[in-house]
Amino acid sequence: MGKKLNILLLGEYSNYHNNLAKGLKHLNHNVVLANAGDHYKNFYRDIDLSYQSNNKFLTNIKRIWIENTKINSFKDFDIVQIINPNVFSRFGNNIQLFKKLISNNKKVFLSAVGDDYFWWKAYREGKFNKSPHGGALKDEKKTKSIWETSNSFIDANRFLAENMHGIIPGSLSYEIPYKHFSNCRKVILQPINTEEYNSLENTLKDKIIFYHGAQLGRYGFKGTNAIDKAMNTMVSKYPSDLTYLRTDSLPYNKYIQIINKTNILIDQTNFIEPTMNALISMLMGKVVMGGCEDIFLKSHKLKQPPLINITNDANQIYSQVEWILDNKEEVMKLSTIGREYVKNHHDAIHIAQKFIQEWSS
After folding, report:
1. DSSP H stretches of helix in the chain
2. pTM for this predicted structure
3. Helices 328-346 and 314-326 meet at what angle, rounded to 10?
């Protein structure tokens, strides 16, 4: 057993740091979670950085005040991991806060798991064959992302990339923008607490239940419009064979409750690999439609796809749903294959061990 580490996990996306914390605690390390809850998802945190109000100006002032107050408690950690450069406000003194983190702690790492300046830069340079960038711009009715127009965010991202002990990508999609940096480490996949989610028997009966949990303001990002178009057509054509459930921006616990009642989760169309919600659904024994491109299969040396690949093309999604209706036995095998993939590649304790190795190297 190695040295017991004091670890600060700063920021949260899709329960990523919460899951990692469970694995680290199982390995007997001390972990502090500091985040704002990831908006409406309201994930757990030991130190609350939330700053919501109805007034945008007051929200920004409150956020900057919270950050500059709480930063004083972020010290004497063996490891600090920052989930994204936007953990601190672009309107405040974000680089000064990052400098304080570096000077007050032993090692500081950047976890590349969300959109940032370098992710957008890679998109503009044509490094992605499939990505949500175009859909995200459509959602915001913009030609450029805030990561391309905010000098404060750009400067903060550059500062972190150049001054971290290491950059740890959470998937292939986030390795692509950073692999030219000398401090970019190996991909460590998303951690999932495999003991937390019940694996229910998933039987495809006469009427198959499909579910897509959309997010308001992110229809283009997730491919919701193409999914809706395909599924509404399918429901009209095969009303006795399938049901399509659709929600917007549910709190995480309610989202999981609906997944429990469904057979097939339609996650999103624009990624080359499964995202966090897809992985959790696979662990629960659900068949998932999402990102499963050849580059993902080859990278992880997978002989069988653990999920059904879809693209941002309603006709392609339509074809995949027709295949599901015609091949129920084959589809049900994916329930087992998907669950085993997550257990073998994403277990939080196994992933935590990989992080400890990277942090210690």
Report:
1. 16-26, 56-70, 94-104, 117-124, 133-140, 146-149, 151-163, 172-175, 219-222, 224-237, 252-260, 276-283, 294-299, 314-326, 328-346, 348-360
2. 0.91
3. 110
Sequence-separated (6 or more) residues with CB below 8 Å from residue 329: none
pLDDT > 80? residue 41: no
Residues recorded for the chain = 361
Nearest to 243 by CA among 235, 253, 251: 235
Q: Average model confidence (pLDDT) for the chain?
A: 94
> What pLDDT does residue 15 have?
87
- CA distances (Å), origin 277, targets 49, 165, 274: 24, 29, 8
Average of per-residue pLDDT across 318-330? 95
Q: Which residues contact 213 (CB under 8 A, 6 or more apart)?
A: 247, 250, 255, 258, 259, 265, 277
Please say whether the beta carbons of 134 and 195 come within 8 A. no
